[in-house]
Amino acid sequence: MADDQVKLHGSWVSLYSFRVIWALEIKGISYESIEEDFLYNKSQLLLQYNPVHKKIPVLVHGGKPVCESMIIVEYIEETWPHNPLLPRDPYERALARFWVKFVDDKGPAIWRMFKSRGKEHEKAKTESLEMLRTMEQHALGDKKFFGGDEIGIVDIAFGGFAYWLGVVEEVVGLKLFEDQAFPRLHAWSNDFKQVSVTKRNLPDPHRMLVFYKDVREKLLGFTSS
Amino acid sequence: MEENKVTLHGVWASPYSKRVELALKLKGIPFEYVEEDLTNKSPLLLKYNPVHKKIPVLVHNGKPICESLVILEYIDETWKDGPQLLPQDPYKRAQVRFWISYLQQQSSGQLMLIIPPDVMGSITSDGETQEKASKELFEKLKVFEEGVKEFFPDGTPCVDNNSVGILDILLVSLFGAHKVQSEVLGIKIIDQEKNPLLFSWITAITELPVVKEIIPPHDKLVAVLHTIRNAGLKSPAALP
Fold first, then answer.
1. Which of A64, A94, A98 faces B91 most closely, judged by CB atoms?
2. Which residues of B touch A105 (CB under 8 A)?
3. d(CA A198, CA A104)
4. What is the CB neighbour count within 10 angstroms for residue B57?
5. Distance in angstroms (rounded) separating the CA atoms of residues B58 and B75
6. B125 has pLDDT over 80
7. What are phi and psi of A35, to 5 degrees?
8. Rounded CA gap, B180 and A30, in Å?
9. What is the pLDDT of residues B7-58, one digit of tens each?
């Protein structure tokens, strides 16, 4: 039925896309996946649905577009409340939203590290490490996942960055996310990749490596820093 | 512990602080206000917000909540009396969150003072950079105006004490003092002719008694802005 139809304009290389996929999959929502070539050739539909930012992901529900990955995730949560991604208690919800914001504010340092060299690269490296340290120290506690025993909204927000960081590390030729330095996050990362929803929905690392190596070459003219 | 004890740690000139104050007042929530000195942060603040060490922090029954927008959603979910800050409908909520994110997007996050982050570029520099920054701000506001037009089907914003929402709060925190900013900077931040919807919207919000109560006095704001501008022109790095 046109009213209920869910479509996701996204890309297999985008962690932001995967946040939405994980949310939809956890809730068991059927959706049509539309692959966008967001770097080199955006579709007319995408530009129509997201005229302000012209970015993926965009969720289209009953013909109405929702933009910005974490806004989409909250929309999914509120529209299909079963298998909740947020806790019930307002205080716990506030804590979850705090960490989602933190991830979104600090996470892009990883991209800046990927896209740059020299001073800018070093600065972004420091910021990425700081983010990891703060999350290691303050965000997880003794829990298995940020959401507790099951993955929740913070796991969805951060999961992509953690996975993509591995690709960036390999392309750039450095190692930030060391297990000794980040034991909690490392354990979390392994658990996260084993969850059935994420296990079934993560891009092939080899394909990603090839893709991102190419992007970096085009940006900087070489791969390692 | 006192049931429902609410404390707000803030700074009088901070737009982020003002947002929370406004939300609390709109909902009729009694609270204690603690003015923090950002050059000498209290041990309590550092304990409540170890990650960012920033204001505002709302403390409810001893539990701290940080980040102004997170606090606003918390307030909306915890106290159901008074205006609903966010709409009920999930799609409308997504739209409101989108525009809030848009307005916030260039937040430098560092200057917790009355200048909206977009205007920061304007006040710490002269000539070309100021013009560029003010052009970018105008373009951004134009996109915002076009985008929110669908919230106002008959063209004019209707704001009253019972219908103030999170977007109104955000706008007044960022641009409520636009006349002061315009006065100090010598450029029009919100132009009545070029941004008619925004101008009338912000004017309507700032006319509300509850908003008038919390907006700092004109002269005090002018003085602070001048101080920042002078410090910024000498050395932007010196700004707190």
1. A64
2. 109
3. 20
4. 26
5. 9
6. no
7. -80, 125
8. 52
9. 999 999 888 999 999 999 999 999 999 999 999 999 999 999 999 999 999 9
Q: Are A176 and A128 in contact (CB under 8 A)?
A: yes
In 10 A of CB B193, how many CB atoms? 7
Q: How far are the Cα atoms of A83, B25, B43, B204 from residue B83, in angstroms, in the given order?
A: 29, 11, 34, 17
SS3 A118: helix
Q: Specify the 3-state DSSP secondary structure of B56.
A: coil
pLDDT in tens, A92-135: 999 999 999 999 999 999 999 999 999 999 999 999 999 999 99
pLDDT in tens, B155-181: 677 777 778 899 999 988 888 888 887
Q: What is the pLDDT of residue A2?
A: 52
Q: Give the pLDDT of residue A223.
A: 53
The dihedrals phi and psi of B182, each to the nearest 5 degrees, come to -60, -40
Distance CA A5, CA A152 (A): 24
Contacts of A91 in chain B (CB under 8 A): 60, 63, 65, 74
Strands B32-35 and A64-67: unpaired
pLDDT of residue B113: 31
Q: Torsion angle, CA of A120/A126/A132/A136, rounded to 10 degrees?
A: -170
C-alpha distance from A105 to closest chain B C-alpha (Å) = 10
Residue B107 banded pLDDT, cuts 50, 70, 90: very low
Q: What is the pTM of this model?
A: 0.92
Nearest-by-CA chain B residue for A71 = B94
Peptide bond into B56 cis (omega under 30): yes
Interstrand relation of B57-60 and B6-10 (parallel, antiparallel or unpaired): antiparallel
**B221, B178 in Cβ contact below 8 A?**
no
A71–B98 C-beta distance less than 8 A = yes
- Spatial separation of the C-alpha atoms in residues A33 and A30, rounded to whole Å: 10
Radius of gyration of chain A (CA): 18
Helix axis angle, B196-207 relative to B127-148, nearest 10°? Answer: 80
Model confidence band, residue B138 (pLDDT cutoffs 50, 70, 90): confident
pLDDT band per the 50, 70, 90 thresholds, residue B116: very low
DSSP state of B238: G
